């Protein structure tokens, strides 16, 4: 019987939050404010990607923006809940 391997849970400071949006999007502005606040509190880093500058992102997410990824996996879209994002980051 092989042992069950578990991924070590990353600390918040090792996590990366990605906001996928576009200029002029008020929901993206709201999401950015929440992400900045939570990442500042937890020590996680964050980045922003513009669907108008990336055709693959545009095709994948144009109906859902803003989209939030955590470590490359979709966490949420449209509205960002600060408490849920904190929990995802382990805070």
UniProtKB/TrEMBL annotation:
- Highest taxon of the source? Bacteria
Q: Which InterPro entries does UniProt cross-reference here? A: Glutaredoxin-like, Glutaredoxin-like_YDR286C, Thioredoxin-like_sf
What protein am I looking at?
Answer: NrdH-redoxin
Species of origin reads: Streptomyces lunaelactis
């Amino acid at each position: 019987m092989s042992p069950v391997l578990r991924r070590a849970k990353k600390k918040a400071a090792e996590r990366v939050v990605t906001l996928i949006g576009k200029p002029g999007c008020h929901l993206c502005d709201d999401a950015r404010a929440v992400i900045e606040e939570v990442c500042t509190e937890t020590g996680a880093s964050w980045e922003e990607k513009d669907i108008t500058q990336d055709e693959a992102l545009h095709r994948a997410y144009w109906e859902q923006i803003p989209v939030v990824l955590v470590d490359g996996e979709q966490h949420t879209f449209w509205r960002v809940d600060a408490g849920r994002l904190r929990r995802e980051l382990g805070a």
